[in-house]
Structure formats: structure tokens, C-alpha cells
Amino acid sequence: MTQTPVPRLVLRLAIPSMISMVVTALYNVVDAAFVGRLSTEATAGIGIAFAYMTFIQAVGFFFGHGSGNYISRALGARRHDDAGRMAAVGFFSPIIVGTVAALVGLPLLPQLVVLLGAPEAVVPHACNYLRYILLASPFMMSALTLNNQLRLQGNARFGMVGIVSGALLNIALDPLLIFGLGMGVTGASVATAVSQLFAWGLLLRGTMRGESVHIRMDNFKPSWACYREIVAGGLPSLFRQAFNCASAVMLNHAAARFAPAGFEASSVAAFAVVSRTTMFAFSLILGFTQGFQPVCGFNYGAHLYRRVRQSYLFTLSVATAMLTVLSAAGYLFAPQIIALFRSEDPVLIDIGSRALRWQCIVFPLCTLATTTGMLFQNIRLTLPATLLSVGRQGLFFIPAILLLPQWVGLRGVEMAQATADLLTFLLTIPFALWITRKLTNAAKHSG
To answer: Which of 71, 85, 251, 426 is most buried (most C-beta within 10 Å)?
Structure first.
């Protein structure tokens, strides 16, 4: 981690993360594509459930990044016992949180999906999908934590095996349960729950292999000191994903409110499809930038600031180039991409195509905030990392989704995410320049 040339090291660590992220996003896309064959209302239903999925991600990434960043620094400083204790606290805590969420959410399921933005015609489909996702919440949250712990130790390959295996099982189960057994939307939910439980088991096994920090029950000794470290390293992820959840709910409500009369389900479904499409593209970039995190954590812990700066700039340049290519393809083929999910609904295709094209115009700008925020998070600059993490979906998206539709109707809903991405990019520029200068000066003084 401290000797291999930086570009080669980042690429070596990024490839497993990219595969994990892309395959994970792929099964979300496949879910939507299979469900899209049922009805527009069913497609909208899984879009509603996606808002709760972002809550699962918020908890999983919070504990995963919070504990994983600490583990990375502790290993770099050769404090292996501390790393083991943090791994156990990070693993068991999301299981507890997920269990509480399931116990609270299941009795209130109809009210929950209405709160998440489901129009009346979509409520039964959203309930059918969300029921088994709630039951699987403890394992889904914990699986995300395990994957991030493994990745931040530099063992992304073990995480990749677990995530990819679960995703492939999900893709195989979808047609069997949805169409073969006639379970419809419920089949898609069961497929996701079963595959996530399977992935969780494989990830847990991955912690017992190689040089991974093992998860041991006797190391589960929660303390304020542990949780302070988790908050310091995971707060940006928690805020980012929490605002993702809030923005998804607000987008659902706005899509239904400003839709053409009688086409509320088509509008909600269109934005659900766009969210999954852009998430698939961004997952490739996010996976690549995640290959930078363990490099950053280990080398920062070892005071090798020149390597930290080099890895940051290399990751930023490659990620921007990749997302530029993907955005160009998305803009050119937007109608064809949206039609893959629900070709029988021209209103859905029309709304989705416009929203996707708006997104693609500014999408490449997202890499600056993502990479810079990861750098801040890894070196424990919690406040600027948190600010950048909430910019896209919180600080700028929420005002955009509240104000733009009031001025230009549905077009404002379509433009909201692109507007937020542009403003987040402008916010990030001074932070990026400051940290680059800081790392350059630190490298000079450290020799």
C-alpha cells in the first residue's frame, strides 16, 4: 500500500470495487426492467420503495465508512487490536438498527409507502415490494458495512465476491419468482431479500480469510469512544444517504403532483427509471473512486502525503473522463434507454428521456465533489466532508425540487437534479484547491 506505484495500486483496488458497485446497480436495473413488464404502477411501486432502500444504504454506509476508515488508519499505524474492536462494533450495530426498523415499519407499511410518496394506485404494489425488504433490513445494512470494511482494509476482492454473488442470484431469481411462480412485484422483493441474505453470509466469510480483520463477538464492546470514531468517519456518508432518502421522497411527491392529469403513476415510474439508470452509471465511477480510499487512508496514516495527493489527482482525472463518456451516451440514447424499462408507456418514455438528458449535461461534474469528499472523509476532515456530501442531494437539491416546479411545472422536476449537481460542483472548487495545496505543502515538509 505504501510502495506500489499509485496509478497501478488505485487501479488494482478499484477494479473489484467497480465490479461490486456495477453488479449491485445492475440488479436494481434488472429488477425495474422485469417489473416494468407487469405494469406502470408496479414500476412506480419499486420506485417508491427505493426511498427506503436509501435509508438502508445510509445506515450501512455510516457504519461501514465510519468503522472502515478507522480500521484503515489503525492498520496503517499497526494498531491491530483497535482495528478488531472497531470491526465488531461496526458489524453488529447495523444489525440492531435494521431489526428496530423492521419491527417499526412492518405494522405501519401502508402509511409508510404513502409517506414515501406513493399515489393511491401505486400503494398496493409498493407495499408488496417493501414488505420483504423490511424483513431483510438487518442483513442488508450489515452487508453494506462488511463490504466497506473489507474494501477499506485493501481486501476489496473478498467484498466483490460477496456482492457480485448476491447480485447474480438476485438476477436469476427475478424471472423465476416474478413470472415463473406468478408472484409479481412480491417475487422481486423476495428475490432481493434472499440474495442479500446470501451476500451477507459470503461477506462475513470473507472477513475470516486472508489478512482481513476477523469479526469476533468478544470484540463487540461498544463505547462512546468507538461511536465517536464512527461518527467522525461515517457522518458524511450518513448525511449524504439521509439526504438521498429525503430527496427521493420529495422527488416522488413532486413527480406525482406536477404530472399530467391521470398520469401520476407514469411520472413517478419515469423518475424511478431515471434514478436507476443514473445510479448504474454513477456506480461505475463510485467503484473507481472507492479504490482510492484505502490508498489514501494507509498512506495518510503513514505520513506519505505525496502519495495521497497523487492518488487524489489520478482518481479525479480518470473518473471525470469515464463519466463524460457515459454521459454522452446517455444523452444521445435517452429514449431508447428509458424504453428498455417500459416501452408500452409513451408518457413515461417522454418524461424520463427529458429528465435523463438534463442529468447527463452536468453529470461529469459530480466526480469533483465525490472524490474530494472521499479524501476529506478518509483524513478525518469531517466538517468539509459532510458539507460536500450533503450538497448534491440536500443543500441544493431540496431547494431546487421545491422551487423549480413552482415556476416551470414538471420541467422543473426534470431539471432539479442537474441544477443541484452544477451548484455542488461550484461549491467544491475552493475546497479542492485548498486540499491540493495543503497536501503539496505537507509533502514538502515531510520530505
So the answer is: 71
